[in-house]
Amino acid sequence: MDSLPATVASALVEADSAGSETDWPARWQVLTAVSVELQSLLVTDPGPDLVALIEQIVTQLADGVAGSRRHRVELAELAHRVLSTHARACAETAPDPVRLADWLLDLQLQHPDAPDVSLAAYADALDDEGLAHYRERAVTLFEPLPVIGFGETGRYDRARWALLRVMEELAEYSEDVDLQLLVLSKDLSSGWHYLQVATVLRDNGRSEEALDWVERGLRAVGGRGAALRLIDLAVEEHLRRGSPQRAVEVCREAFFARPNLDVYLKIRALVVHTDDWPPLRAELVNHLVQDGTRLAIEVYRRIVEVELARRGVEEQELVVEWLHQLRGLQPDAFADYLEHIKSRHVADRQLLDELSKRGL
Question: Is 76 helix (H, G, I), strand (E, B) or coil?
């Protein structure tokens, strides 16, 4: 038993040096034989000494992964197999749970590449005391990490990556929503990250916090990226909470921040059958006129198409007025656009007559 670490060390030495490929199959056979021997010892000689021995060999293999270029994958898989043997040995031996927690955490932090630790495999050995210690240490190390702000490039150095992996596994194993949120909120580099946080909060009944994160996300994205999905989540939550007016307000604010046909359609669907729609529609369109940017005018034109499709008398009269305004905003491109409208609605004599009355 005592000779196994030396055997591993000998098999790993200069594994990537020139000419080592010729004897790698023999070295690999030695390493896999050690793994088999450890499994046999688990049956014949379990106890604290075996646990300590396996820990030494896992560490050696993890060092081998970090130092190898050609055989990282094989060594990582072998380290994982030996770690599984370690978990079984701990289940039978019942080591000090706090010491075990420290060893598992140190293994991962000092060897970011391998192996992955499954806390479920150590559930009995860690028990509540060990898991609490593991959680406390991990959180203490993770909390000071800087948040990756919106638009920033992720700073995933090896230390941060190792801590992130530890926290993700811990959050999943413990089903701790606060831990999951702590992990997610460390990376806010895009609107989709804000959406992830808000979705987790919504799914766990924390509606007020979810809406707060939606608002933060919308401020960050400025109408781009994940804006529509953030708006969807906010609308769903406000409607579920019996606050349709707040749902409309979220959409209205988003439309003013960055005009968008999809947002216009959301507002329309929410209030089209109420008395609030005509003045609100006028407010939205007037905002596009006042904005006057290329984006705003494009949205203006698409809204014209949407309202024309309704084919009501009121909509047609309104659209004709909008087209009249559009002529002043886009005098150079308006003639072609008007011909496009007329050709698409050539059978609508009422619309064509109304356009003719207005000199269009």
Answer: helix
> 117 in helix, strand or coil?
coil
Handedness of CA 212, 215, 219, 223 (dihedral sign): positive
How many CA atoms lie within 13 Å of 15's alpha carbon, on the beta-carbon side?
26
Q: What pTM value is reported for the model?
A: 0.83
Question: What span, in angstroms and rounded, lies between the C-alpha atoms of 42 and 51?
Answer: 9
Q: What single-letter DSSP state applies at residue 148?
A: B
Euclidean distance between CA atoms 256 and 327, whole angstroms: 22
Q: How far is the first Cα of the chain from the last one, in angstroms, to the nearest whole number?
A: 95
Q: 25 preceded by cis ω (within 30°)?
A: no
Task: Tell me the three-class secondary structure of 12-23, residue by residue.
Answer: HCCCCCCCHHHH
pLDDT in tens, the chain (360 residues): 678 999 999 888 855 555 566 788 888 999 999 999 999 999 988 899 999 999 999 999 999 988 887 888 899 999 999 999 999 999 999 899 999 999 999 999 999 887 889 999 999 999 999 999 999 999 999 999 999 999 888 666 888 889 999 999 999 999 999 999 999 999 999 999 999 999 999 999 999 999 999 999 999 998 888 999 999 999 999 999 999 999 999 999 999 999 999 999 999 999 999 999 999 999 999 999 888 888 998 999 899 888 887 766 566 778 888 888 888 777 777 888 888 888 877 777 787 877 787 777
Give Cα 172 distance to the centre of its chain: 15
Rounded Cα gap, residues 52 and 87, in angstroms = 12
Find out whether 63 and 107 touch, Cβ atoms under 8 Å. no
- Identify the residue whose tokens are 């990226």: 225
Domain definitions of the chain by residue range: 1-93, 95-189, 292-360
Short-list 224, 222, 185, CA closest to 201: 185
- Determine the Cα angle at 173 with ends 167 and 175, to 5°: 95
CB of 116 closer than 8 Å to CB of 80: yes
